[in-house]
Design brief:
By secondary structure, the protein is mainly beta. It is built from 1 helix and 9 strands. The strands form 2 sheets. A 5-stranded antiparallel beta sheet has the order 1-9-8-5-4, with no helix packed on it. Strands 2-3-6-7 form a 4-stranded antiparallel beta sheet. It is globular and about 40 Å long.
Length: about 110
């Protein structure tokens, strides 16, 4: 998929989740009839294209981000595809990612 074709999907994901907390990454994404499992997540302070990637703190079986003073965007990444799901998690206080199967979520 060309980069320009990804932007409408990214925009829809951001708009659909603006103001929503808690939020979870989907456990999988179906693309062209194939199921792609959630394998990683990143958290950004501001839109991901600004590249302000936040560093998590390891907390047992998960990585944890405290969100005081940030404008959090959770980016969900899937096995075998470049497509991501981006969630603008306004109002979330903490996000976590890890465990088996992999999951990523934010909560108040």
């Amino acid at each position: 998929m060309r980069n320009s074709a990804r932007w409408p999907l990214l925009f829809l994901a951001i708009v659909a989740c603006t103001g929503a907390a808690p939020a979870n990454c989907p456990s999988s994404l179906i693309e062209a009839g194939s199921d792609h499992t959630l394998v990683n997540a990143s958290l950004y302070d501001g839109p991901p294209d600004q590249m302000a990637d936040l560093i998590p703190v390891p907390a047992g079986s998960v990585d944890r981000w405290s969100l005081d003073g940030v404008d959090p965007f959770l980016v969900c990444k899937f096995q075998g595809i470049m497509k991501v799901v981006t969630l603008h998690v306004v109002g979330a206080k903490v996000c976590e990612a890890g465990q088996k199967p992999f999951q990523a979520y934010c909560k108040r």
